[in-house]
Amino acid sequence: MLGFRSVSAARQLGRVAGRSLGAVRSKHTVPELDYDYDELEPVISAKIMQLHHDKHHATYVAGLNAAEEKLLAAQAANDVAAQVALQPALRFNGGGHVNHTIFWKNLIGEKNGGGQLHACALKEAIEQTFGSLEKLSALVNAKTAAIQGSGWGWLTFDPAKGGLDVITTANQDMAAAVGHVPLLGVDAWEHAYYLDYNNVKAEYFKNIWRVVNWKDVAQRYDAAVAKHRAA
Q1: Binding site membership for Mn(2+): which residues?
Q2: What are the binding positions for Mn(2+) in this chain (predicted)?
């Protein structure tokens, strides 16, 4: 979570990213895709995938690494003002890195099972909570389309109520920042769709469900439920 109130920004970001930060740390890197750039066509073009992954995600990673280097220096110097000043960069670039890392895993080509949600605990939970997958997608699309500016639409597990929820986050804010476990993210930034859909983002939101990797989403749901029950 990127709240940065009770512990250092570096250690909070480290927990979100799945590793801790120390005086000597390894740099964040852009994860490789599990598929070729063109696998998501015609829903998302190879050109968008290459730009989105190799340029945009790489920019967040570079910004995050730079901010963390400055943070470590500020911590070593006991410069509290500098540490506070770095919080926006850590939040924005850290969120961009974490959100996109989830996003790539959430996608898969139609020929490899994209859009297919088979019988599982997640399917049952979706039907119990929203009525059907179609109603869930309509809700996510409506909430995501209503974002003013850039942001993300999320299917999440909310530990507070022990079930599924649909939320949105602004810019690169993470679902974890409001206590939710992200399961499925829809990138509503223009760079995610504009080359293919121009200003008709509603078509992008409609079509992206054809390439959702429900196996990945279901695994995230199972892990979230198991952690919640063990708490």
Answers
A1: 52, 100, 187, 191
A2: 52, 100, 187, 191
